[in-house]
Amino acid sequence: MKNILVTAFFLGMFSLGYAQSDYYNDYRRSITDLNWQNVAVELILSTTQKNQLYALNDRYNDYNSWDKKYSKNPDKWRTDRYAEIEKILGKEKYKQFKNKYYQGQNPTAVYNRNKNNDVKSKQKVSKKQEPMHDRGHDNRR
Q1: How far apart are CA 117 and CA 123, in angstroms?
Q2: Rounded mean pLDDT of 75-96?
Q3: Do the Cβ atoms of 59 and 98 come closer than 8 Å?
Q4: How far apart are CA 116 and CA 17, in angstroms?
Q5: pLDDT in tens, 1-59
């Protein structure tokens, strides 16, 4: 019985939070939202840098491969990915990259902020869908 309650608790917490597949979708958008060939041209990247970026972008082509790495900490992809990009580009070109594509902000912070905005908007939608008689009332007797 205790195992069932613990499992139900974790499933409930997980469903209220940001779903694992949403993290993967953010990860995929971090790749598909940019034209990496244009990035390479604009930053005047070497062939080696381009190849490393393309390999990084191809690292987790599907959810299962991504999930094997990030199932325990799905938020970690952000810091891993952008640290790797900084390592590939070097500090100066990474700064140019951030300025051009993230308005000078840390890309990890941008995705974290978007994640939190998405969760807040989902909560607002779910509250709007509640029947009026259930809002704010304690139904326990």
Answers
A1: 10
A2: 94
A3: no
A4: 10
A5: 555 655 544 554 444 446 778 889 889 988 998 999 999 999 999 999 999 999 999 99
Q: What is the 3-state secondary structure (H, E, C) of 24-49?
A: HHHHHHHHHCCCHHHHHHHCCCCHHH
Measured CA to CA, the distance from residue 77 to residue 57 in angstroms comes to: 12
Rounded CA-CA distance 87/94 in Å is 8
pLDDT bracket for residue 83 (50, 70, 90): very high
Residue reference for tokens 């325990």: 72
**How many CA atoms within 13 Å lie on the side-chain side of 113?**
7
HSE-CB at 34 with a 13 A cutoff on CA atoms is 21
CA angle 107, 40, 99 (to 5 degrees): 35
pTM: 0.66
CA 137/CA 59 separation, integer angstroms: 49
- Burial of residue 63 (CB within 10 Å: 0-12, 13-18, 19+) is middle
